[in-house]
Amino acid sequence: MLLEMRDIRKSFSGNLVLRGIDFGLQRGQIHALVGHNGAGKSTLMKTLSGNYADYQGQILIDGVECRLETPREALKRGIAIIYQDFSLVPDLSVADNIGLGREPKGATSWFLAHAELRARSAREAAALGIDLPMDEPVRRLGVAGQQLTEIVRACSQSVRILVMDEPTARLAPAEREHLFVTMRKMADNQGVGIVYISHFLEEVRQVADCVTILRDGRVVETGPSSRYRVDDLARLLVGSTDIATIGAARPATAVGAEVLALEGLSVAGRPGVDLTIAAGEIVGIAGLVGSGRTRLARAIIGDVPSRGVVRVDGRPLARRDPERVAKAGVVMVPEDRKISGLALSSSVEANVVASALGRLLSSFGFIRPGSRGKLASDMIRRFDIRPPDRTMTAGELSGGNAQKVLLARAVAARPKVMILDQPTAGVDVGAKAELHRQIERSADEGAGVLLISDDLDELLGLCSRIMIISAGKVKSVLPSAELTRAQLLSAIS
Question: Please, are residues 212 and 204 in contact by the beta-carbon 8 Å criterion?
């Protein structure tokens, strides 16, 4: 056995998060680890990667017990981890990030051999069949490009155990398939053991040899992936949580007056986009990574330069910037909750009420006593944010609960238009069902919703119409009722 974790326990502030977990990994095996947000998956893997020195239990590698108390110690043992939230240095180039910590020395120890580092990083990416702009600062890459940079960096080290935490959450279908081929080659040809954490249960069945299901810090079941259907995994994963609504088509509802209109909205010289959204309507945008979906959304709120007309409630927005557009009633939930979404060091309360402070002001310009806490508590109950503690910092939340806070912040502002960019990426089926219910509820309350998603079932289930976009150009806008999943996949590909 390459890796054995026995009776692993870990507490935070007296709260037991890992409750005696046993986990094993063989050479050349892809072992999927699935569970509800907060079930303990990431905590278990951070223990393996040396981030928590105070864990209890035993870790054995090749049958020899070892204490992994620092990330450097784990790396020496051949353990590498790709985190769900990126650990890149934004202002360094792609090549520098890939070689971070392994920089070749130049003529003297005071200098780095930059040309050698760049060439080596390019070779390491090419060996995985990944093409990246080596000289580009990673902050200029899209989320998919940053994810691929993380993958190359992890795989470029002398890795024996590779942990991949939601590696496909923001990858296009073709990129996902390529990653699966690469994973299988690493397992079969190099004997690397891979721990694969994912909420995409169909992918788990496709790529994994074995699967372990966690719930509430305990192992529910372990077995070969061929034993389970997607429905079986979903039931084991969330227990009694209602998952029946996931993928269910949104019933036709009456919609109100136009709340958002785009007329010839052009970004970076691309063809202008025309689109209208009515109150109570959910309209989707489907396209591959790099198709211009996110840039279009950012153009609407004035975050990137654009030409054309944006009207809210029939009124054109003459000058657009995020603050003015927000005051007009348009809020956006960004794709990356860590960098551009949440204030991770601030409380849940501060994050939830950030977009709604104007509603809480008295006629004298002061926030009404108790109004912040009441609004935050109301949103925590509505979105079932766990733990239900408004004083907790947002950075301590699991991925699914952090995503709920982001959407709660948007809803708390009572917007006329919500723009949602990948609102359920990287969350489990239970949290996804709750987020879907809240998106539908916001539409029922009169908001117009523009939904960008890589999840085709999400688009088909929630949206009345879907705009298909490629290279910044709208190919078509079709009623979702007229599309099958296969047709939609074909259209965007």
Answer: no
